[in-house]
Structure formats: C-alpha cells, structure tokens
Amino acid sequence: MLRSAILTAAGSGSRLGSTLPKALVPLDGVPLLVHAARRLLASGEVTTLVVTAPAAHVDDVRAALAGLTLPDGTPPALTVVPGGASRQASVAAGLAALPPGDGTVLVHDAARALTPPDVVARVARAVAAGHVAVTPLVPVVDSLQAVADGAFAAGHLPVGGVPTLGATPRTGLGIVQTPQGFDRATLDAAHAAARAAGVDGSDEATAATDDATLVERAGHRVHAVAGDELALKITTRRDLALATLLLADQPRDS
C-alpha cells in the first residue's frame, strides 16, 4: 500500500507580514514547511512526499527540504511542484505528481507546522482500517452565535437540521485540522467530479477549502479522529508568536 502525503506550501506570507512565502517563514530558525515535513515523516506512516510550492520558489522549497529522512534514516521519495491559484488546485497538482496506484494519501498544510506525529499516524491508520476519508478535529470551546445586521440573529446555526434560539450548542461541533487522510482512488475521483462540475480551483472564491469537503460532496462519509491543539494553523503574526511559545515547551527532537 502506497503511503504518500501532499504538503501544501504555496501560500503567501502577507498576513504574517513577511516577504517570504508563508511556508518559508522561520519558526525558531526553521522554515514552517520543514517543521511540518519532519513531523509527517516522523509518524512512520509516510514514505512519499509531494510538496506544492509557489512557482517562483520551487528551488527554494526543494533546498529547504534537503536532508529529510524517514525514521530508519533513509531519505523519502520527495517531489516539489508548483502549486495552483487555490488550495484545491495545489492539491490537484500534488495528486498528479504522485506515483500511480491506489493507497493512502494524506493532505497536510505546511501552516500547521507543529502537528504531532501521533495525529498523522492516527489519521493514516484510520484510512488503513477502511475509512475512505478521515480528518482530525478538536472540540469547539467558545460559545457560538449567528449575527445578522450587527445583532444576534433570532435563529442561529442549525444543529441536526433544527434551528433553535440562543447560543449554538457546542456539543457535536469540531474545528477541522490536517492532515486529512483518504483512499487515493476516492480522492482522485472527488477532484475529478469537482472539475467536471466546473469547480477546478482556478478561482479562490469558489474553490473547496479542504479535501474532506470535496469528498463529502461526492457522497462519502468523512470519519473524525482526535486532533491536537498543537496543530493550530499559523496565519498571522500572533499565531507565529503562539507557535514559538508552544515549540519552546516541546522536546527538542519533536
């Protein structure tokens, strides 16, 4: 069974206040995508890695990833390709660069640089157990409230299809993280179905925000496993500062 991962690293660093692409922004002196790639490989569940990079920085990304190793000390099969106009388009480019054949494929965001290896393993093993789509979630801890015209809406986000009044119950709600894991054939078919429907990811406004959404739209059930607070998405300078503090609390070989 193929064990592959697509690491999306084609985003800009504008909201981090950086002139570098987001994935090359350093965290404790190491680019975000290197942190993410190391943890993917440390899980022992990934042997092939395809990274999508900004077109102008393919060589920079390839250089940053030089020296990566699997847990046994051997190098992974590594490919770096230009990403697309959206995350969906970038993942499609990554899928096209994977070796042919069915198997397990993980899709991970370089911006979730501190995702622990055990979350990666949990996702991959759930796919191997027969779930065609798997995503890690962390529980929602904040109160949620729908707003309309600057005030609380009379009805709010429906839970179980039944709109109710007041704050949205948090039970049954989760925050989606990555890596998301898929049966390769199922993910290929979901991307093909989106393209056939005219949603190819060339327009950020209409592109799918994640691959679990595409697979769910194709009629498949998405299985949930436990995520981790360390898998936060690093988007702003505040996120980067928080990640720096979290990293300082981790073992140096994490």
UniProtKB/TrEMBL annotation:
Species this protein is from: Flavimobilis rhizosphaerae
Designated name of the protein: 2-C-methyl-D-erythritol 4-phosphate cytidylyltransferase
GO molecular function: nucleotidyltransferase activity
Keywords attached to this entry: Nucleotidyltransferase, Transferase
Source organism phylogeny: Bacteria, Bacillati, Actinomycetota, Actinomycetes, Micrococcales
Pfam families: IspD
Annotated PANTHER family: 2-C-METHYL-D-ERYTHRITOL 4-PHOSPHATE CYTIDYLYLTRANSFERASE, CHLOROPLASTIC
